[in-house]
Amino acid sequence: MQGRVALVTGAGAGIGRAIAIRLAREGAAVVVADIDEVAGAETVRWIEVEEGGRAALVLADVGVEADVRAMVNFAEQRLGSVDILVNNAGIAPEPHFPHADPGHWGRTLDVNLRGVMFGIQFGVEAMRKRRGGVIVNISSMAGMIYQPYGAPEYAASKAGVVHLTAALGSLKETLGIRVNCICPGWVATEAVRRFLAKASQEELAQQSVPPPPVLIQPEAVAELVVMFVRDEDLAGRVVVWPDGEPWQLVPNDALYRY
């Protein structure tokens, strides 16, 4: 990845930070995109000081079209290109649909689905100039389950990301751009650790998908991103990682089996 530029959204913490640091470790210059300036700056500091890499911070709300366009432009102007795009930013604020008002649950769709679509659209425009690139979307197992779920708008947005990814598989042949997706279960991020620390056993039992004894590490998700960047044969593919099980690459025709 030497000489390549990666843009990672939601890179101020959790999965996004782990991905940004790992890509920098592999040799990529990294644009850290986040709405939290302090957290984003800490990721940049880590990359530059601990990893000896190159990084730059851009403040962007991926749910806002103008912000995403400016984010991609920043990457091109500051570091020269966008070769790798990781659409990681996501939210799931309470209360949830249908108990929340449309403005509230609509924000989840804006960030989790429209934000990914904005990123892909403007990212593709930038990658066309380089005649190729890699896009990795971070979805969730919430988008792959067919059962009651406590945050329906979150599940719907993540399911949309999965199907969007599969639908864009042909970009590899037409533009040389590979779009793939990762769907992890419970990940040991700072936010999840805070939730688990304060949640009662009753609250945990009421979760649609209770957390397993061993959580997925953010660095393990970052490893899958690296796999998708390196493997030039993978396009329109989805990795699922159910809680407590090994990850697996979903066969191309899997969705047609139902």
Provide tags for this entry.
258 residues, alpha/beta, Rossmann fold, eight-stranded mixed beta sheet, 9 helices, 45% helix, 16% strand
Structural commentary:
- The chain has 9 helices and 8 strands.
- The chain has 258 residues and is an alpha/beta fold.
- It has a single domain (5-239), classed as 3-Layer(aba) Sandwich (Rossmann fold), CATH 3.40.50.
- Helix 4 runs parallel beside helix 5 (152-167).
- The mean pLDDT is 94.
Using the coordinates shown, work out and report the CATH topology: Rossmann fold
Q: What name goes with the CATH superfamily?
A: NAD(P)-binding Rossmann-like Domain
Order of helices and strands: EHEHEHEHEHHEHHHEE
Major beta-sheet overview = 8 strands, mixed
| Count of beta strands | 8
**What CATH architecture do you see?**
3-Layer(aba) Sandwich
Number of helices: 9
The level 1 CATH classification is Alpha Beta
**What is the helix fraction of residues, given as a range?**
40-55%
Radius of gyration: 17 Å
Question: Distance N terminus to C terminus?
Answer: 38 Å
Uncertain stretches of 5 or more adjacent residues: none
Neighbour order of strands in the largest sheet? 3-2-1-4-5-6-7-8
Put the structure in a nutshell.
This protein has 258 residues and is of the alpha/beta class. It has helices at 14-25, 37-50, 65-79, 102-128, 152-167, 171-175, 190-198, 201-205, 218-230; strands at residues 5-9, 29-34, 55-59, 84-87, 133-138, 177-184, 238-241, 248-249.
